[in-house]
Write a structure and sequence with these properties.
single chain, globular, Rossmann fold, alpha/beta, 8 strands, disordered C terminus
Length: 316
């Protein structure tokens, strides 16, 4: 899909493998540095449950247009939100598609889902968020110092420059032992295999510009007045061993959402959708319950017993 500024966004859609003409359409919103390939296991499980699924790579990652290669950069989260709005209105909100839209947002995708729903009421019908990026950790820097530094460096013209030592980060070389993402070794190495086989989907560390844009968006999101605009059901899954995003305002923010439900899953890390099969079963069955409770549709319990097969999908 071509945006007004000429950016090309790679998108995919998957048909259900079982007959179901009444379930909502699920829109996958990946997290930072994540491509659609890493959702293969998720897509297969949802296909088998009768869902039609759509998704796209954010600009700057996956196989969408990249302005500065592997560096994690965005000028403003408004750019992401404009891309999301264009995608939804082009493919999901048309005269030919009458199903409800439920967002499945991971990490940064969950953050953007909340911002989009607050700023565009009535477009999306619900959301399931896994480890949503409600805030970020700023490491050795205080929040005030990180904000000042990212603003200053961007003002100096270094917005597209790696944050100090972020140039050393390469996801392909990260070991499984002690990783911050998952306990599922099989999926961990499968995702690495995908990156080795297709280096174009690899994204490295973050830039001063990305930090600046993210902190500005976090400030917007962390407002009861802003989040109270959201009037659709939201299910939030959180990892109890979270080491990537900052959950210090988690309970406060969920209280600001009038129709939200929070579930903390023990023994899990940031990438909940790449965790062990029992965790995946819990989330997939939870998605079905969420749909049944909010859209008056039938529920079918099933389980994920092992790995998955390569998917047939329509990508452009």
């Amino acid at each position: 899909m071509k945006t007004p500024d000429g950016t090309l966004l790679r998108y995919c859609w998957w048909k259900p493998t079982t007959t179901s003409n009444i379930k909502p359409t699920i829109l996958i919103l990946p997290g930072r540095a994540t491509s659609l390939e890493t959702f293969d296991n998720v897509v297969e499980a949802l296909q088998e449950r009768g869902y039609t699924i759509w998704g796209f790579d954010w600009r700057g990652q996956g196989l969408s247009t990249r302005e500065i290669g592997r560096r994690g950069y965005i000028d403003s989260y408004e750019t992401y939100l404009n891309d999301l709005d264009l995608f939804i209105r082009t493919f999901l909100k048309t005269d030919y598609v009458n199903r409800p839209i439920v967002i499945l947002g991971q990490s940064m995708g969950g953050h953007l889902a909340l911002r989009y729903m607050a700023e565009n009421p009535g477009v999306v019908d619900g959301a399931i968020l896994t480890a949503p990026m409600l805030d970020i950790k700023t490491g050795v820097y205080s929040r005030r110092a990180a904000s000042w530094l990212s603003n200053f460096m961007t003002w100096l013209g270094f917005g597209k420059t790696y944050l100090f030592q972020q140039e050393k980060y390469n996801p392909v070389t990260q070991p499984f032992e002690g990783n911050m993402l998952t306990h599922n070794q099989e999926l961990f190495y499968y995702h690495r295999h995908l990156q080795i086989e297709n280096p174009d989907i690899v994204v490295g560390g973050v830039t001063y510009g990305w930090i600046k844009a993210t902190l500005e968006s976090v400030k917007i999101l962390n407002s009861p007045k802003f989040l109270s605009r959201i009037d659709v059901p939201i299910k939030i899954y959180v990892a109890d061993e979270e080491m990537v995003v900052d959950n210090c305002r988690l309970e406060k923010i969920t209280n600001w959402l009038s129709k939200s439900e929070l579930e903390i899953i023990e023994g899990t890390r940031h990438q909940l959708l790449a965790e062990q099969p029992p965790v995946l079963n819990r989330i997939y069955n939870g998605i079905d319950r969420f749909v049944m409770q909010n859209f008056d549709l039938p529920i079918r319990e099933s389980s994920v017993e092992g790995f998955f097969s390569p998917l047939k999908k329509h990508c452009f």
